[in-house]
């Protein structure tokens, strides 16, 4: 899938437009546009493979500098971030350091208030800090955060110490002050959430550096460490750790799909994590690890295992949108391979709808649309042409557009040429085997075209036009097409021709009803999903209950007062009269 | 146990000899002996502790077992052998000496899936084969005669060019004697397919043409087959019974519409 990079970063004007606007907005972030572009590429590269970034990312990262301040303002806690921003323009590195540090209180607050939204916000800020991440940044943050060198801090530093920008002097100072600050450390303990957050930053840094071996090692140790922790506030962060863990191993030699691929070695760990997560009802990790496992199995084309995993596990309904999109994509792929095209179509439609369509994160969108197009063709439908006009898809889907054209015109020769010409592209997209299955659809479409245009046509002519070997083949094929309901016709064996039946009024059939039903179903599903997607704050219902209780009390009091009042009223006039 | 070491090779040797002579009565007990020996050598499942030559011998014994069970028409036992062989094929220690029989076994398994109508399994396996081929730059799957055969058969079956299937399953197109054992099953499958197609697409058919269409040997066989299918024979022509299920389908339609409406009503109620 990474092969789409050239398409993505190719000549498209849209790309330049986006980069341009980004440069304007992020003047302080990227003096070096070339570097920014390169980092974008990397990011795209990993978006290609899987949706790394939440859908909001496309719009999020350009405005990232404002983001934390905005968020903090909302929470009534301005950490002097606005002031920092002007300083930050001087040195982007310092700015990132401040940003990272600003995230740490958020994590703490997340732990105290037991609200995963804070950790999610921190995770969302990773893409923007990513561009400036360096050994210097990591080391500075670590030395400033940890009052004394703990085991975690040291492991974080060792992971980045091979870089030239590593501030050796500073770290040595930090090591030496170990004794003096020993008494102070009892005041404040570093939360595991912060450990893990910084570890994720190191993972990202190593991945961008392409130090795959070091990254794999670091991640393995990290995952082992994670398994000893049991904190619900850690879940969103751990899910991200597992993601990078799998990513590192995917790029370790021997690469999949060799039977000895490195990815196979992490299956046990991932399965363990899945089991633990399921037992702890930890939906973040459960969702993340399930998709990782599916991806892992599919990369070595262990489709049966993937299928078994799906049938034995339950994907958490409350999973994040992008995890869900990925899950649906893999599910769609598996079903397509197993020839359950209708099911595959359903899943893939879900995946494409849920996927981020922003230009920068379009890799997943492209991959799922490609598969969707092929599955639609296999179902005998012709995909909507508008799909191919979207700017994020136009380049990448060009071979598929031609494929659709060949299939819809029933041109078997053009189809075969296409398959040959784009052999490597289709193989890279993992759609090759599916496309090979399309041959019969092309023939059917050809038969259909002929049946529509001729009232009567000899089998010999059909055979020539379809490019078949023999008249007999043509006869069998037409017979099969008639049986499967592709065409309305009958055959005359003795005289060797096909006679089409009059095409009836389509509105007299059940076709419109079916289409209508499908749409109603989609609307209802949308409604259900929107209800499910609404956020219900924790304990809010109790507040409401309390309010309701209070209201009821008030009402009762009121009623009582009214009753009393009535009596008063009854009394009062009497009294008044008395008075009068 | 080490005293058995030479016997494994010798057992394999005699087994292969029996196999090549097609002597199934002799090879069956020999295979039992071989499996017992495998168990003693702890070579039923490949592990790094077992020496590579032993594993290679074990692989050959299992392959022989697989071929033997195909010959004795025992698909279940073949599937068992096939599953046992998979870890051997993927075992890193044996990658240097790939088995010459691997593609044959895989091809037979594909054909078995095809004859059982398990298209999902067929394509699942095919997918993994093609993916593996694309990566290693190894010989193309479609160039291998053993694997090419089931792939082409499947393609013809799916397209509906049954004459191609007929031609491929009979005579010299079949790549090996084990493959020929499936021909009968496949021809039977396509005959039924053709019959159901013919019933829909021809108003009537002369018996002589039906004989050709259905790949039957004589007109008597056609009459027999037609009776099985419930077709009526008049004046040397076959008349297919009218499509009585059209009406039934309509009834089903109405029921479906009603059930849809009730569903909408329920959903609306939930929303409002």
Automatic annotation (TrEMBL), chain A:
Family designation: Belongs to the proteasome subunit S3 family.
Positions with biased composition (Basic and acidic residues): 1-28, 549-563
UniProt KW keywords: Proteasome
Keyword Transmembrane: no
Pfam families linked to this entry: PCI, Rpn3_C, TPR_PSMD3_N
Compositionally biased residues, Acidic residues: 564-580
Taxonomic source organism: Capronia coronata CBS 617.96
GO cellular component terms listed in the entry, alphabetical order: proteasome regulatory particle, lid subcomplex
GO process terms (BP): regulation of protein catabolic process; ubiquitin-dependent protein catabolic process
Ranges where the record places region Disordered: 1-78, 549-580
Keyword Transport applies: no
Full protein name: 26S proteasome regulatory subunit N3
InterPro entries (UniProt xref): CSN3, PCI_dom, PSMD3_C, TPR_PSMD3_N, WH_DNA-bd_sf
PROSITE patterns: PCI (PS50250)
All residue ranges annotated as the PCI domain in the record: 325-505
GO molecular function: enzyme regulator activity
From TrEMBL, chain B:
Signal peptide: none
Descriptive protein name: 26S proteasome regulatory subunit N12
Entry-linked PROSITE patterns: PCI
Record family assignment: Belongs to the proteasome subunit S14 family.
Limits of the PCI domain: 73-256
Pfam families listed in its UniProt record: CSN8_PSD8_EIF3K
Source organism (scientific name): Capronia coronata CBS 617.96
UniProt xrefs under Gene3D superfamilies: 1.25.40.990
Alphabetized InterPro entries for the sequence: 26S_Psome_Rpn12, CSN8_PSD8_EIF3K, PCI_dom
GO cellular component terms, A-Z: cytosol; nucleus; proteasome regulatory particle, lid subcomplex
This protein's record includes keyword Signal: no
Keywords: Proteasome
Keyword ATP-binding in record: no
Biological processes, Gene Ontology terms: proteasome-mediated ubiquitin-dependent protein catabolic process
